[in-house]
Amino acid sequence: MNSKVTMDEIAKRVGVSKYAISKALSGKSGVSEQTREKILKIAHEVGYFNQPRVKNKYTRSVNRKSPADQLEKSSIMILIPNIRLQSIESFYWGHIVDGIVGELNKNNLSMIITTEYLADHASTLININELLGIIIVGTISTSMLMAISQLGLPIVTIDHEDRTIPIDSLFVDNQEGTTRVTEYLLQTGHTFIQFIGDIDFSRSFKERWYGVRNTLENHGYTISQDEQLLHLNSLDIAQTKEQISSYLTNRWNPGDQRTAFVCANDDIAIATLQVSKALHLNVPDKISITGFDNIAISEQTDPPLTTIHVNKEALGKRAVEILLRRYHNPDTTKEKILMATELIIRSSTVCLDEPSSFIPINN
User: Fold this and answer.
1) How do the domains of the chain map onto residue ranges?
2) Fold of 174-310+342-362
3) Higher pLDDT among residues 126 and 225, named by residue
4) 174-310+342-362: same fold as 1-50?
5) How far apart are CA 151 and CA 64, in angstroms?
């Protein structure tokens, strides 16, 4: 097709607005899966992805020198499946991508950032023969991962593992992180500890719950976890707040025990802070609250949030290192690597008893 293909033309063919076309082609939420698939199908048929201006939109160069300087191939695809709040704009995932970009820059490589929906059209966006490998950031469907693995390229996943497809994977040591914060809470006088987060939302959330549960069991505590707090709606923060409020209003009964809430991430911890304030429950005098991830806003809350620091840029950097090693050593055993975390003590927790042997990292 020789004429210029625009979003307006695709919108007319599909029968939706240009705004919906833009959302679908960029992998953003706001359109149904059925409509998204129809839009991508029509866009592919009319040659939308073959246009140079479209290729330039999805391809970002990173100070690339001659590919022959270091590697035979010159590009890495970064795939961010746009589900479960995963996007380059997020406080968490965006910093991981920053780490990837920095390491690619050091190695004079270019990259393509795409979503799960646009990955189907990779062959029209670039020459697959120039791809060194693929880094997948976050959760991805088994069907899509299987299709990508059939390309025969090195693959590294960050924060995702599929037991049916052997590939290199990189995780934060989630269980170690919540083990550390639970140990600290116990040693500072907290005896009634609840985990808040949907353990079915992701592998990471479930591992963080295991860290809390196992630590309590190891110290001889009977697990009195509220089951509903383990199954919050993690995609709707307003509903999450309602569920936390319902617990604090109707079911919370710690007696004379000191309460601490270990939250699956900082967003849930911040929501818990806000609900506590609305119910006139002073933090940390009445309850202590901890998060996980150490996103930028966590030190700006009132009070600042005790949390587990994840070096997000280091995750991205390490993923590139693993991918390059796999490229040069394709037959070595696949690896699953855990990266350590750090406990950041701020004002959302209080020391009732001075810990005797635990040395936290203060902020």
Assistant:
1) 1-50, 55-166, 174-310+342-362
2) Rossmann fold (3.40.50)
3) 225
4) no
5) 24
Question: Looking at the domain that runs over 1-50, which CATH code has it been given?
Answer: 1.10.260.40
Secondary structure string (H, E, C) spanning the chain: CCCCCCHHHHHHHHCCCHHHHHHHHCCCCCCCHHHHHHHHHHHHHCCHHHCHHHHHHHEECCCCCCHHHCCCCCEEEEECCCCCCCCCCCCCHHHHHHHHHHHHHHCCCEEEEECHHHHCCHHHHCCHHHEEEEEEECCCCHHHHHHHHCCCCCEEEECCCCCCCCCEEEEECHHHHHHHHHHHHHHCCCCEEEEECCCCCCHHHHHHHHHHHHHHHHCCCCCCCCHHHHCCCCCCHHHHHHHHHHHHHHHCCCCCCCEEEEECCHHHHHHHHHHHHHCCCCCCCCEEEECCECCHHHHCCCCCCEEEECCHHHHHHHHHHHHHHHHHCCCCCCCEEEECCEEEECCCCCCCCCCCCCCCEEC
CATH 3.40.50.2300 fits 55-166, yes or no: yes
**Tokens read off for 225:** 């976890």
pTM comes to 0.73
Q: What is the pLDDT of residues 65-106, one digit of tens each?
A: 433 344 556 789 898 876 555 554 566 778 898 999 999 999
Specify the residue for token string 């939109």: 57
